[in-house]
Design brief:
The complex is a heterodimer of chains A (351) and B (525). Chain A is of the alpha+beta class and 351 residues long. Chain A has helices at 18-24, 76-92, 107-115, 150-158, 193-197, 262-266, 293-311, 326-340, and strands spanning 2-5, 8-11, 48-51, 58-59, 70-72, 131-132, 138-141, 164-167, 174-177, 203-205, 217-223, 232-238, 243-249, 281-284, 287-290, 316-319, 345-346. Among the domains of chain A are: 2-74, Ubiquitin-like (UB roll) (Roll); 216-276, ADC-like domains (N-terminal domain of TfIIb, Single Sheet); 281-350, no CATH class. Among the domains of chain B are: 5-177, 3-Layer(aba) Sandwich (Dimethylsulfoxide Reductase, domain 2); 414-524, Barwin-like endoglucanases (Beta Barrel), CATH 2.40.40. In chain B, helix 3 (68-81) runs parallel beside helix 9 (150-163) and helix 6 packs across helix 7 (120-132). Classes of the chains: A alpha+beta (351), B alpha/beta (525). At the A-B interface, strand 11, strand 12, helix 6, strand 14 and helix 7 of A face helix 2, helix 10, helix 12, strand 9 and strand 10 of B.
Chain lengths: 351, 525
């Protein structure tokens, strides 16, 4: 069907929300509480638009398109409404961006930028920073929370861990872990879904703090190295240091749709660990010494040939790995079958 | 898995047996929990531990370790008795039904209660919920396979799903949840002693000829040795050399004293890994390899979805890709390999691997694809066995019940069972490099409240766990999730190695060790 946004004809699908139709057409409508995965919440009201024939402003995240609908996203009335909401949010939280880990991928920052706002204009008593650092992997800064409810929805409806909820009402409304325990003492399994879905710096990945600015990292797709579910990962790499500084789940991936477990998300220290093996080693008199590739490979090939000649090919056994790629398992079994001449190949599928 | 992850919430009932899903496959657990909370799927959990999934289940039953065949036969007994079996499916798609029927006739709920400890009424409720469900899925993991009756257990799960007509349809299936990132792929690629890539049988004349032609060399047609048997042969001095890539049998193998002795007796041990593992320390040559974040390639997940990995960072120092190391050895041995990138290997592989033949890096794209995918026009196969099994008719197997190899007795009165915990992975080589994960989960032994009181220990106190193989002292984690008489220990920790205690008793066919059951005693440590 056809609709009009800001005077421009836009193709839309029946059942689509205004926000999705606009996004597909490359038109930005700010959102804070809305997230693809948890759906429309209609809470923050920052996505309001004007629809011809409708007296009140409407939320683009929840209203579906209709044939011939005429929508305005940047009228004075819309912008003033959005500014008031953002002004209230900025005035009531510690939204300081300089050292915030979310800086560069903060959706409140994006809206403020879009509206040209620097800071809140309402004078509250000083807003103090309220932090909870009790969890191993997730930092909580309650004074940055905008009560959008994404984390609560994700914890309950996506990963279904049922730890997060809201406590109190109105001005005092806040997120709570279990019956308001510090995060680290709650039943939270630290899957990090809340940190991934938080639009601001209220829930952030502790391990990534101070490691790299968001705009300095490149995201590379990979697959989780742990269990066999095959969760699709985005490895955030700082090219200057050649290090992984954050791992997130790939939203929309058929295996995990952005979800990860505590290992997949936070268990990446092994990749750049100082204990990694960096050179071939040969044992002499019970001790390892460094060797060149050529020396090590020559020794391996010679010993294999020697043993094969003396005891037959079936005196050799190869153990391939459930942790290397298909390509590498293929070359391994090919080496044993064609090079050594035995079918003694197995791996830890049984263990 | 015969079925795919997307179909998880398309079942009416999901039976989880022998899988601590939220600890070992947390993201699949998340989807199942969601389906249960949304009222889409009713969950049945049968597990010796009252695992977290039981909190989301309509029915939970605690069986004695090692009695799965009896429980599944008992379910089938009741399903047949009440006429809930899928007669059309049995008639059209299976054979051997009469033999199955005769065998399960013995497994009355009263008899099953005696064996498994599951009350008659509970088994009846389970059979009714499962048997009457229009579509039911079955999920299992190592709790089904790591037994001396592992093959029997797996066949019993297939019996149940064929009996109820749950095969070859969305939301059904027999779904083993695979425990390692590319364990599916390692099997698919012929990383097994009895098959070439895509499970083409060693010794089959046509297959031998095909691969001899494809690789241009004469090949052995003798089925090789499994790892567990190879260790025994090494112990006996018959095996002379092992080349181990990315595995750590010094923590993961049963009866570690035996494993250590076996490796010591080898004339030559090569270990290729990313860390100086317990196994690498025993090697004559250690070759530094790359981690998954440092390479391009593909993994095949538990639902047979082949997905791309891209190189994110450089491997440290002189470490190389595993395939580059294989190529160097191959060429030193006089073979002429010329792969320049992972994709070259994939392109060669798919030419001799019918189930991967239609996959290309380009087609895999963002989402990956399910094998079997026989040609480049084929969309891939999320659900197996629709309309027909690979062997034609599905074969029922009449499975009698057998006790585990070692049962509790006067000297060792407790059941000892092992597994994983959420925060750690396998032998800990990777997960234990993250301090936060270690803070969340260190070595421990899970014991029931009753047993803790009986031996006089409090949470965190030292407990000495002993079996006929050895003893381990570690901290007690006292929990209501553990039943009286059963002790659980995670196997991730070399310093409190559960596998010093496990028994090296194997399934006669699959050669899988019985990690899930042996006898132990516990004392204040």
């Amino acid at each position: 069907m056809q609709i009009t946004i800001n005077g421009r004809a836009v193709e839309a699908q029946p059942g689509q929300t205004i926000h999705r139709a606009a996004k597909a057409a490359g038109i930005y409508i700010p959102t804070l509480c809305y997230h693809e995965k948890v759906g429309a919440a209609g809470k923050c009201r920052v996505c309001v638009v004007e629809i011809e024939g409708s007296p009140a402003l409407q939320t683009a995240c929840s209203v579906e398109v209709r044939e011939g609908m005429k929508i305005q996203t940047r009228t004075e009335r819309v912008l003033n409404s959005q500014k008031l909401i953002v002004d209230l949010l900025l005035s009531t939280g510690t939204h300081d961006c300089l050292a915030c880990d979310q800086n560069g991928s903060c959706e409140l920052q994006d809206v403020a930028y879009y509206l040209g706002m620097e800071r809140g204009s309402f004078k509250y008593a000083d807003v103090e920073s309220v932090k909870d650092d009790s969890s191993e992997f997730v930092s909580v800064e309650r004074s940055k929370c905008i009560s959008c409810g994404r984390c609560v929805a994700a914890c309950n409806n996506t990963v279904t861990n049922r730890v997060l909820d809201f406590k109190y009402r109105g001005h005092k409304a806040d997120i709570a872990f279990d019956d308001d325990k510090p995060m680290g003492e709650s039943s939270c399994v630290q899957c990090g879904e809340c940190a991934q879905i938080c639009p601001v710096g209220a829930l952030t990945d502790k391990l990534s703090k101070g490691k790299a600015r968001r705009w300095d990292v490149e995201k590379v797709y990979s697959v989780c190295p742990y269990c066999g579910v095959g969760c699709k990962l985005e490895l955030h790499v700082d090219r200057k240091t050649d290090r992984i500084v954050r791992v997130t789940g790939a939203e929309g991936a058929p295996t995990n749709n952005g979800m990860l477990c505590v290992k997949g998300r936070y268990g990446y220290d092994f990749v750049g660990h100082p204990d990694r093996l960096t050179t071939p080693l040969i044992k002499e008199n019970g001790k390892f010494r460094e060797a060149s590739w050529d020396e090590a490979i020559t020794l391996v090939a010679t010993k294999f040939a020697e043993i094969k000649q003396k005891h037959g090919a079936d005196a050799l056994m190869g153990m391939c790995s459930a942790k290397v790629t298909n390509e590498e398992n293929y070359t391994f079994q090919k080496l044993f079958r064609t090079g050594i001449g035995t079918n003694n190949i197995d791996h830890c599928a049984r263990l | 898995m015969t079925n795919d992850i997307a179909g998880l919430d398309k079942s009416d009932v999901a039976l989880i047996i022998g899988s601590d899903t939220s600890e070992c496959h947390p993201v699949i657990a998340a989807r199942l929990k969601k389906a249960a909370v949304d009222g889409k799927v009713k969950i049945i959990v049968i597990d010796p531990k009252r695992i977290k999934m039981a909190d989301f289940a309509t029915i939970y039953a605690c069986q004695r370790p090692g009695t799965d065949v009896a429980v599944l036969n008992g379910m089938m007994h009741l399903i047949i008795k009440n006429g809930w079996e899928d007669k059309k499916f049995i008639e059209e798609r299976t054979e051997g039904y009469e033999a199955l029927k005769e065998e399960v006739a013995k497994f009355t709920p009263e008899y099953v209660e005696k064996i498994s400890g599951i009350p008659v009424r509970t088994l009846e409720e389970i059979a009714e919920l499962f048997g009457k469900a229009p579509t039911a899925a079955l999920y299992y993991a190592m709790g089904i396979t790591q037994h001396t009756t592992g093959v029997d257990n797996v066949k019993s799960t297939a019996n149940l799903q064929m009996l109820c007509g749950n095969m070859g349809k969305v939301g059904g299936g027999v779904n083993p949840l695979r425990g390692q990132s590319n364990v599916q792929g390692a099997c698919d690629m012929g990383g097994l002693p009895n098959v070439f890539p895509a499970y083409q049988k060693i010794g089959d004349a046509a297959v031998q000829e095909k691969f001899e032609k494809f690789w241009g060399v004469k090949l052995s047609d003798k089925v090789g040795m499994t790892m567990t048997v190879a260790f025994d042969k090494a112990h006996a001095g018959e095996m002379k050399a092992f080349y181990i890539m990315g595995e750590n049998p010094m923590v993961s193998d049963p009866d570690l004293h035996h494993a250590e002795e076996s490796l010591k007796r080898l004339e030559f041990l090569v270990v290729q890994d990313i860390f100086m593992t317990e196994t690498a320390q025993m090697a004559h040559v250690v070759l530094p390899a790359s981690s998954p974040a440092e390479k391009d390639g593909t993994f095949s997940n538990t639902e047979r979805r082949v997905q791309l990995l891209f190189k994110a960072v450089n491997a440290p120092g002189q470490a190389k890709h595993d395939w580059e190391i294989h190529q160097m050895i191959a060429n030193k041995m006089g073979l002429n390999w010329n792969y320049t990138k992972a994709e070259d290997i994939f392109e060669e592989m798919r030419k001799c691997t019918p189930s991967y033949a239609g996959l290309t890096y380009k087609r895999l794209g963002f989402a990956g694809m399910h094998w079997p995918c026989p040609n480049e026009e084929h969309p891939g196969t999320p659900v197996l066995h629709i309309g027909k099994f690979s062997r034609g008719l599905g074969l029922f197997a009449a499975i009698p019940f057998k006790e585990p190899a070692e049962m509790p007795d006067k000297d060792y009165p407790w059941y000892f069972t092992t597994g994983r915990v959420l925060q750690q992975y396998h032998t800990g080589t990777m997960s234990r490099k993250t301090p936060g994960l270690n803070n969340l989960a260190g070595p421990h032994v899970m014991i029931s409240v009753e047993d803790a009181e009986a031996i006089g220990v409090k949470n965190g106190d030292k407990v000495k766990v002993s079996t006929r193989r050895g003893s381990v002292v570690t901290g007690a984690f006292i929990t209501k999730r553990c039943p009286k008489g059963t002790v659980f220990m995670p196997f991730h920790f070399a310093e409190a190695a559960a596998n010093k205690l496990t028994i090296n008793a194997l399934d006669p066919i699959a050669k899988i060790p019985e990690y899930k059951v042996c006898a132990c005693k516990i004392e204040k440590g």
